[in-house]
Amino acid sequence: MANRSDKYPNLKKAWDAYGHQIKWDQLFEIKFYGYYAALSWKEPDGSVNYADMASGDGKTWEMQNDSHDSMSVATWKRGKRPAECDWMNFPGEAA
């Protein structure tokens, strides 16, 4: 992932302040849905994992979950956030 610290400085600041074991520069992709962000990284086996953060104003971000079950890159790419929800759904998961 291109380093997006200049585009999302408040998100990066919150990620760094949380102290996640995955560093900002190791992130694979970020999916934004309003004030919800799903930040993914690749595991050593090539699977993808992600953490999700939320904000009430786009300036102050808080960690919701710092990891989930790993999945394939294809499954990650198909993930969607249901309207009015602050989580992701992936193919094969119950809503």
Could you provide a short overview of the structure?
The chain is an alpha+beta fold.
Q: How widely separated are the two ends?
A: 28 Å
> Which regions contain 5 or more consecutive residues with pLDDT less than 50?
none
Number of helices: 2
Give the percentage of residues in beta strands.
25-35%
Radius of gyration over alpha carbons?
Answer: 13 Å
* Total count of strands: 4
SSE string, helices as H and strands as E: HEEEEH
What level of helicity do the residues show? 10-25%
Give the overall shape, derived from the CA principal axes.
globular
Average pLDDT: 85
Strand order of the largest sheet: 1-2-3-4
- The secondary-structure class comes to alpha+beta
The largest sheet, given as strand count, sense and whether it forms a barrel, is: 4 strands, antiparallel
Give the quaternary arrangement of the chains.
single chain
Describe this structure in words.
Helices cover 17% and strands 28% of the residues. It is α+β, with helices and mostly antiparallel strands. It has a four-stranded antiparallel beta sheet, covered by helices on one side. The longest helix has 10 residues, at 9-18. The chain starts with 8 loop residues before the first helix and ends in a 17-residue tail after the last helix.
Strand-helix topology:
Blueprint: H1 9-18, E1 27-33, E2 36-42, E3 48-55, E4 61-65, H2 73-78
Antiparallel strand pairs: 1-2, 2-3, 3-4
